[in-house]
Fold:
Amino acid sequence: MRGWAVGEPGPAAGGPLVAVERVVPDPGPGELLVRIEACGVCRTDLHLAEGDLPPHRPRTVPGHEIVGRVIAAGAGVTRFSAGDRVGGAWLRHTCGVCRYCRAGRENLCPNSLYTGWDADGGFADIALLPADYAYPLPEDAEPAQLAPLLCAGIIGFRALRRSALPPGGRLGIYGYGASAHLAAQVAVAEGATVHVLTRSATARDLALSLGAASARGAYDAPPEPLDSAILFAPVGDIVPVALAALDRGGTLAIAGIHLTDIPVLTYEQHLFQERDLRSVTANTRDDGEQFLATAARIGMRATVTPYPLAEAPRALADLAADRVNGAAVLIP
Structure:
């Protein structure tokens, strides 16, 4: 197999990815050997490559928005067969016995493992995926369209639910990249009024084309008080801005795995009147199943910028510099 691994973490423009060539592995019990058709480039991959997330193992192949075809299945696999199209996502293992797993909150499992962080991911032409954490994918969709759904979409969906948006509510979205433009489509389809706050003029244009009621700068005030808000940009300075934009009883959900430091909050201005501040941690498999069903039902369309797998370093650098419209996707 050929792909890219994180060598020495550092700025994306400096080239933290290194080309690797490895022996194609055999699938073990419960595993799928998958030939990759497409893999999205997630901001989490950028955080890992740049060192915002500490590496869990040396020279790991990043990528956890994997679309591919099963080449072979290991012992005990009954859900999938050779030739099936499957998706590999961020969550790849939970213990199943801790208090969180037993309560349906496997995203909080202390023994959880993640694709592209604890095990090699999809910046390659071949991957191993645990069958129990893979998703069946439709045959009639473009692989590049499906790839962003497998993390950006799933996490955005969980963030939307964590934001406690009431029916017909007013939602503010701060940052408008891969995850945000998919979550916004769900919110609009469910009858919400969506206001987008982002620094990118291109992203503001995309937001309006996908049904947003308004699109303004990241630090601007929305045109009306918000019932809920989601912060997708990994910028802690926006937290007080978003909290101040909430109406009474509103909720801000922070969707990222990494966030720069949050400035001092003033209780009266930012939290009083029962405003809530929530984080979002990974996802459950049920989140993934619900989101993929919702995406199919509403005819979700991802805006993608494709890159050949050979240009993975450029895709990562473009993501870091906000040069990607929608989602970057690697095509082997």
Summary: Residues 154-279 form a domain with the Rossmann fold fold (CATH 3.40.50.720). The first strand starts at residue 2 and ends at 6. DSSP finds ten helices and 17 strands in the chain.
